[in-house]
Amino acid sequence: MVSGAVSAEMVKKTSSGICHPPASSYYERTQSFQPFESIDACITSGGRLPKRLAQNQSIPPRKDSSTSYERSAFGHGWDDADGDCQDSRAEALIATSSTTVRFATDKECRVVTGRWISPFTGKVIQNSGEIDIDHVVPLKWAWKRGAMGWSQLKRERFANDRVNLWPVEPE
What three-state secondary structure class fits 90? Predict the structure, then answer.
């Protein structure tokens, strides 16, 4: 960490990972920091903007950020956050089936049948094995627009958020 004066163009990254550009209300008060030449460089290093600045700015995606995206940054597979043995995939299938779903066992963990209508073709699908779950907001798109600065827990919650899951026909 650096202490002391720097040029007005410098972006200051605190130990908590917040990138303070000169427009930040905390810029002058930030005394212990890692200097960066730009906001982009600070965010690429894992930093994030202060909440007030992030809300007021639209940061375009960086050209180099797509190469750093890895699906595993959003967790490994579907989560069962509520511990009911139904992971996010099963819960999305249950929520969107137009009939009562049938499970593989009496534990009611894995959905095997239901009734889903493809949003693309209108085809009726009854076998859950013929359904893929897509993210309404794709994870790579979210990554390039700020999710790289989120905590691991926040990314995993986002990837498993029922509102962001959409049962579709496989490609």
Answer: helix
